[in-house]
Amino acid sequence: MSEREKLPDRMNCVTFEMKVDNRNLTVVVDYIRKANHSYTIKAAWIKMFPQDSYLDRELRASGKMLSRCFQRGETVKDMADTLSQDNIAGVVANYMNKHMISILSGEQPSENDKKNITTDPYRIKAKPPEVQYES
Questions:
Q1: Is the model's pTM score more than 0.90?
Q2: Is the Cβ–Cβ distance between 46 and 24 less than 8 Å?
């Protein structure tokens, strides 16, 4: 098992909002900017209001899990590939993977651009597999 990286006392941080299953989420991403203008994600915190609801506690636990994985060398792409999109932590990881440049630049989506992402496996749009039938 790899050791958990010691984090600096202060890191860069960006906050963005997203909507999943008609719930408003706030995601806080902590990262370290390197000298060559690259970055390393070290933590992702997921919050939902009302706080201290059952789902909010589960999301905070998911954020801790993501953060510990990042601190052990996992990348955002690793987490997006590992977690499915039928849970909120997986949706957040996939969203971060697809939109990391705009997230780190501090761009917030407009109200019109904030779409409701679903975790319902029957509503997730995926390319259907090609099936060949024998006659």
A1: no
A2: no
